[in-house]
Amino acid sequence: METNGVGGSAADMSRILSELETLKTAKNDIDRRISALEAQLRDTTNIQDKNDTVSNGSCPLISAVHSNINHDLTPDSVYRYSRHLLLPSFGVQGQSNLLKSSILVIGAGGLGSPALLYLAACGVGRLGIVDHDVVELNNMHRQVIHTEAYIGQPKVKSAAATCRSINSTVQIVEYQEALRTSNALEILSQYDIVVDATDNAPSRYMISDCCVVLGKPLVSGAALGLEGQLTVYNYNGGPCYRCLFPTPPPTSACQRCSDSGVLGVVPGIIGCLQALEAIKIAGAVGEPLSGRMLLFDALSARIRIVKIRGRSSQCEVCGENSAFTQQQFKNFDYEKFTQAPLSTLPVKLNLLPEDSRISSKEYKEKIDNGEAHVLVDVRPEHHFKIVSLPNSINIPLASLEVRLPEISKALKEEDNSGSGASLYVVCRRGNDSQRAVQCLQKMGFNSARDIIGGLESWGHDVDPNFPTY
Amino acid sequence: MDVTDREIKTKNAECKPAENKGSSVQIKVLFFARARDLTGLTELPLELSSGSTAQDCLNKLVARFPSLEEILGSMVLALNEEYTNESVIVQDKDELALIPPISGG
């Protein structure tokens, strides 16, 4: 990482930041006004075109007076969507259905980005976007709807601006909030089709249940690492998410992109396929991916389509004897059910007593004072390769127990004074380090302490130039 | 997964009274998502005595990869690209896929 400009005082920094903020707000305001005026201008031109019986020669639009039009597409729409209209299997009817449809995309991240781009471009009548997060630099490699200028700003705002810039004729509705049982019914009920582009298990159960209760088709996509999954739930007698997965996977099995990584283009592909399925349902064309699941394997370049079960008569939500009502939905605790948080915030464990812990600032002081110590980094090896603290030894948590002799040896080597070297444990965010300390203390390393908040807090509180990931 | 559902239809179930030619069958197990992480494999050839069920196959897999236990209760099981349940009898050259859900995005 590069260092910031030299010589700037804190006061200068804050003045620049606040001026930037003011200017950006003003710029957004101006952009919005420009967009609104442009739309107004287009509308006025359209009306003039319609009233104008004399062709201006260059205009390819059809004049209503001289043509026989049996549909409700405006001349502008005919031109904009002409490649759709030229498709015999989609045509005027498909486009007209699309223009009248409303689609809600939940999540404006890796899946939602491409889905929203295509849904806006294709001319859905009304497009809703739900997200509570802000754009971050480490989103940019896959969340292609956002631009660097929006870093730090709400994803909904950024996504909506891009959608409007692609197609100003689509009505974009922004929901800058987390989807919860308290607002889900009200939001989802206003749309024909729901696209699940979220990144966590509780949201997936909640959205599926809500779609069952409201009778909405759900286009569900997921991506992680180099794999993707796609299916349409609760449509044409097909199953819901719970028919397939009545029992949520244990927390350990639910990985996030922020922990396990994801190749940017993988959610891109799945998100595009989600847009495709939503367009097929909205346009009433083709055969939707209901009762089938598409499995995408990026490494081997394979797409498999597996026939999945039909609706389960025993399903607790959509089954024959289920009495899952809107009220039950509102009261259902999805975080408890899946043992996982709805928000994308990483879990912060608190397993150790205070005297077994040390802050990153305190650890820095120990280094500065030249205290004899050993620092064990318990992250997986490929994390260690990204960045690590000087003089730390990498012993991944999974192999900690079998590699205890290495720690004993390192402690002996460090112990110059004979009064013993301290043992500190660090990880990425300060959860695994606590687990490691628990394990170490059990195995007789009583002085083991973890660094609270891990490398993330080191980057935050001690060394702002320390790379975070 | 519920095994009581009547609507389950697989190719194997239909040709169930198939004659057992040998004493063992060779199938291919496909791992997806978390199952890949836990086994470190994308696929695995597996030999089973003929007449074995998908459940027998899972038992054998868990014996070899104990950590697979974690996802057994929450995954889709597919035989030759079609949804199946644990009680179905596997045939020679069948492909059994373990498909846990992905929730990332």
UniProtKB/TrEMBL annotation, chain A:
Cofactor(s), by name: Zn(2+)
Family per similarity comment: In the N-terminal section; belongs to the HesA/MoeB/ThiF family. UBA4 subfamily.
Descriptive protein name: Adenylyltransferase and sulfurtransferase MOCS3
This protein's record includes keyword tRNA processing: yes
CC annotations in GO: cytosol
Annotated catalysed reactions: [molybdopterin-synthase sulfur-carrier protein]-C-terminal Gly-Gly-AMP + S-sulfanyl-L-cysteinyl-[cysteine desulfurase] + AH2 = [molybdopterin-synthase sulfur-carrier protein]-C-terminal-Gly-aminoethanethioate + L-cysteinyl-[cysteine desulfurase] + A + AMP + 2 H(+); [molybdopterin-synthase sulfur-carrier protein]-C-terminal Gly-Gly + ATP + H(+) = [molybdopterin-synthase sulfur-carrier protein]-C-terminal Gly-Gly-AMP + diphosphate
Job description of the protein: Plays a central role in 2-thiolation of mcm(5)S(2)U at tRNA wobble positions of cytosolic tRNA(Lys), tRNA(Glu) and tRNA(Gln). Also essential during biosynthesis of the molybdenum cofactor. Acts by mediating the C-terminal thiocarboxylation of sulfur carriers URM1 and MOCS2A. Its N-terminus first activates URM1 and MOCS2A as acyl-adenylates (-COAMP), then the persulfide sulfur on the catalytic cysteine is transferred to URM1 and MOCS2A to form thiocarboxylation (-COSH) of their C-terminus.
Superkingdom of origin: Eukaryota
Residue numbers binding ATP: 110, 131, 138-142, 155, 199-200
EC number: 2.7.7.80, 2.8.1.11
From TrEMBL, chain B:
UniProt xrefs under InterPro entries: Beta-grasp_dom_sf, MOCS2A, MOCS2A_euk, Mopterin_synth/thiamin_S_b, ThiS/MoaD-like
This protein's record includes keyword Cytoplasm: yes
Molecular function in Gene Ontology: molybdopterin synthase activity; nucleotide binding
Domain of life: Eukaryota
Residue numbers of Glycyl adenylate PTMs: 105
The keyword Nucleotide-binding is assigned to this record: yes
Biological or metabolic pathway of the protein: Cofactor biosynthesis; molybdopterin biosynthesis
Keyword field: Cytoplasm, Molybdenum cofactor biosynthesis, Nucleotide-binding, Phosphoprotein
Compartments in which it is found: Cytoplasm
Complexes and interactors: Heterotetramer; composed of 2 small (MOCS2A) and 2 large (MOCS2B) subunits.
UniProt name for this protein: Molybdopterin synthase sulfur carrier subunit
Species this protein is from: Acer negundo (Box elder)
